[in-house]
Amino acid sequence: MSKEFDVVVIGAGPAGYVAAIRAAQLGMDVACIDKWLDLNDKPSLGGTCLNAGCIPSKALLESSELYDRANNEFGDHGIKASKVELDLAQMQKRKAGVVSQLTGGISSLFKANGVKSFAGSGQVVDSGEVLFVGHDGKEDTFTAKNIIIAAGSEPVELDIAPFDGERIVDSWGALEFDEVPKKLGVIGAGYIGVELGSVWSRLGSDVTLLEAVDEFMPIADRDVAKEGLKSFKKQGLDIQLGARVTEAKATKKGVEVKYTQGDESHNVTFDRLIVAVGRRPHTKDLCAKGARVELDDKGFVDVNDNFRTSLPGVYAVGDVIGNPMLAHKGMEEGVAVAEILAGQKPHLNYDVIPSVVYTHPEMAWVGKSEAQVKSAGTEYRVGQVPFAANGRAKALGQQGGFIKMIADAETDEILGVHMIGPYVSELVQEMVVAMEYKASSEDIARIIHGHPTLGETVHETALAVDGRPIHFPPKRKK
Q1: CATH code for the structural domain at 168-277
Q2: Does the annotation place 328 within a ligand binding site?
Q3: Is 290 left (phi over 0), alpha (psi -120 to 50) or beta?
Q4: Which residue intervals define the domain FAD/NAD(P)-binding in the entry (predicted)?
């Protein structure tokens, strides 16, 4: 029996559940289909982000950092903590509790907003028609005025290192270890690889990251990436650049990995191996044969500026339409497409989407890197101030890192801000707002920041763009 709705959303990750809620707020009758099953094979809303990515990884990052600080930093604060023991089962239990609360929260929000939730898979058959298959195998047809595809993405699996769920795992499997591997390998040193490597390194693993490219974290500004690499190596992460894995074979005792680095060949054995080489759009079997939803050569759904696909009445948002594959980007696209369906005219500024790496120290940035500004031929000025000049950072015992601000030499408009240091995931938000309103470095320099706060380093960096920092010696021109 067919069910009729104004909107059917396929996927309940950040882009999908937000699109569903916003559409319901705007008076539409909305259904949201999601096929995620948790480790107990129970339906769970929130997609990869809440179930197996953003949220559980941050929970483990926080717990592992506290464990590491208790062992290595508390003494500096006059806190004598002897015989600190790791209870990994409790740590995992806490993480699962955080996930459960948030995924359950989406269910409550659906009910509060009148969104009808269906556990199973959805396939676009044609304009206005979705085939729903429940987890029990029963089929139904949903008809709708509009369909929103928000199917998300999945980890890339390498032919040379196929997942077995035990020895060779993806990013979700890496969050579910029930014991700390003595020797852990990670293929990929991007933000996922570094975050996961940091968790298990803090808990006692000997971690090696094998990165195929010759530069560390090329998506980041070079100064931030260089500082990050130095810091992570100091923490004990063995980051091998230009290391191309050619074979990974799981055995009863571990994983045998072969890789090349320049002209040299290497063989190494790990207890477990994490493959973190990126994600790909989840578009396989998303559309029935004959459904005219066009994909690009990488499998992403092609959309126009209003998120419309090639099939009338069908829209797509989030990871499934391409980079940046970030939850917050997908959320805002979900809001935007719902408002478009309601006849509104929303606007998204893709030039000021923040990026964050939740390591210690954290890394964050928004806007263009110095290399991008230079390649565009724009004349610019740079201000850079270390957290070592900040009183709050010293009090926290986290004075490593810096903030770098790039401004147009003629107009003084802020073009990019790049940070590495304590809580920069929060500090970068000030710059997102500033850049959205086309602020200049002078605007930030004239705003009074509280003292003592980490935010003062943002203020000091803006002053440094003009060569007049107060608490840090300016660079002298030769």
Answers
A1: 3.50.50.60
A2: yes
A3: left
A4: 5-334
In the CATH hierarchy, which fold is given to the domain comprising 3-155+280-348? FAD/NAD(P)-binding domain (3.50.50)
Helix 88-113, helix 54-72: angle, nearest 10: 150
Give every CB contact of residue 234 below 8 A, 6+ residues apart in sequence: none
- Hey, which residues does 117 pair with through a beta bridge? 32
Q: Which CATH class is domain 352-465?
A: alpha beta
Q: Does 286 carry a binding-site annotation?
A: no
- Cα separation, 2 vs 33, in Å, equals 15
Is 239 part of any known ligand binding site?
no
Query: What pLDDT is recorded for position 372?
Result: 98
Alpha helix (H) ranges present in 155-254?
191-202, 222-234
Q: Which residues contact 351 (CB under 8 A, 6 or more apart)?
A: 367, 435
Q: Which residue has the tokens 């690889």?
A: 193
Strand partners, 249: 256
Q: Answer yes or no: 451 catalytic.
A: yes
Per-residue pLDDT band for 1 (boundaries 50, 70, 90) equals low
CB burial class (10 A; 0-12, 13-18, 19+) of residue 194?
A: buried
Q: Over 60: is that where the pLDDT of 66 sits?
A: yes
Residue 300 has pLDDT above 90, yes or no: yes
Tokens of 468: 């007049």
Give ranges for CATH 3.30.390.30 in the chain: 352-465
Cα–Cα dist 277/162, whole Å: 13
List the beta bridge partners of residue 161.
Answer: 158
Which residues neighbour 264 within 8 Å (Cβ) at sequence distance 6 or greater? Answer: none
Mean pLDDT, range 32-39, rounded to an integer:
96
| Class of residue 368 by CB neighbours under 10 A (exposed 0-12, middle 13-18, buried 19+) | buried
- Is 188 marked within a binding site? yes
Written as six digits, the tokens of 126 are 């044609």
List the structure tokens of 372: 């991008």
Q: How far apart are CA 434 and CA 444, in angstroms?
A: 8
Does 282 show up as a binding residue in the annotation? no
Residue 210 labeled ligand binder:
no
Among the listed residues 266, 418, 451, 471, the single catalytic one is: 451
319 annotated to a ligand binding site: yes
Output the pTM of the full model: 0.95
Q: Where in the chain is the domain with CATH 3.50.50.60?
A: 3-155+280-348, 168-277
